Amino acid sequence: MQMGLDGLQDEWSRLAETDPLWAIAALAGTKGNRWDITEFFLVGERRVEGVLAHIRELGLELATDDVLDFGCGVGRATQAFAKHFTRCVGVDIAPPMLVAARQLNKFGKRCEYRLNPHPDLSMFGDASFDLVFSNNVLQHNPRRFALGYIHDFLRVLRARGLAVFQMLSGPSNPWLRWIPYWALDPAFNRTRTVLRRITNPDEGGWESHWIPPSVILSFIRRNGGEVISTVRESPLQGGRTGQAMEQHTYFVRPGRAESGTVQVSGAV
Ligand SMILES: C[S@@+](CC[C@H](N)C(=O)[O-])C[C@H]1O[C@@H](n2cnc3c(N)ncnc32)[C@H](O)[C@@H]1O
């Protein structure tokens, strides 16, 4: 059983209504609206600055007119981008996240927050953005949706634009890697989610999925994208009952080239 987008919207709306910052980053000691708001937004700034630094290291030129933050939550990355981009658009599936994002926004009209309950980005025309960013979002969507969004990231990018998105890549446990992910993911995900909900509710338990990097890289190339860099992040710890998960951040141009270097390094 996997959630459709309606289920995802309900789940994230419920989380956003009760404890939005913890729903976004369930760190120990932050449940019950106990995140320090300044620290929470600093985490977003550090993430965005790390991404922009990596883009500079890669020697990529990037226009700074329009950025899309896909799955923006309360806008911690959207606002961090406002220091660099003229127009920052955050989209989310959960209306209460957007209410919180607008309340917390410190950058006026430079940041706009929009609802997107659809399995694509049809609300935006082709070539609308210089940068599309997505962090801790695609993993909450079943594979068919995640790949559909990646397809549209490329479509809405301008010719010299860049998509930067993070995705879970599979269990760190080498024994589980022998089982094909299309067989393992739904059953594993369901079991993990139920176990976490029962035994460790303080760590959250919302649906999450993974896609191996090889599948993502070939999907991008088949859709005309050029993978510039793939960065291995620190594994996401699974808690007492969960499994640690590998995760990567992909830097992708909407070009036509077939090649792409795979860079394995620390977190950006
Ligand atoms: C873990 S939070 C991350 C929020 C934000 N990216 C950050 O790092 O602060 C996941 C967010 O993605 C949103 N989300 C999940 N699936 C989505 C989808 N299909 N379309 C848009 N937003 C989605 C959720 O509502 C939630 O706000």
Account of the protein in words:
This protein is α/β, with parallel strands linked by helices and 268 residues long. It has a single domain, classed as 3-Layer(aba) Sandwich (Rossmann fold). 37% of the residues lie in helices and 21% in strands. It has helices spanning 5-18, 20-24, 37-57, 76-81, 95-104, 143-156, 181-199, 213-222; strands at 66-70, 87-92, 111-115, 129-134, 157-171, 226-236, 245-253. Helix 6 links the parallel strand 4 (129-134) and strand 5. The two termini are 34 Å apart. Residues 8, 12, 24, 44, 71-73, 76-77, 91-94, 97, 116, 135-137, 140-141, 145 line the site of S-adenosylmethionine. S-adenosylmethionine binds next to helix 1, helix 4 and strand 2.
Strand count, sense and barrel status of the largest sheet are: 7 strands, mixed
Overall average residue pLDDT: 89
Radius of gyration: 18 Å
The helix count comes to 8
Structural class: alpha/beta
Give every kind of bound small molecule, once each.
S-adenosylmethionine
Question: How much strand?
Answer: 15-25%
Q: Which spans of ≥5 residues are poorly predicted at pLDDT below 50?
A: 257-268
Question: Can you summarize this structure?
Answer:
This protein is α/β, with parallel strands linked by helices and 268 residues long. The chain contains 8 helices and 7 strands; from the N terminus they run αααβαβαββαβααββ. A 7-stranded mixed sheet has the order 3-2-1-4-5-7-6, with helices on both faces.
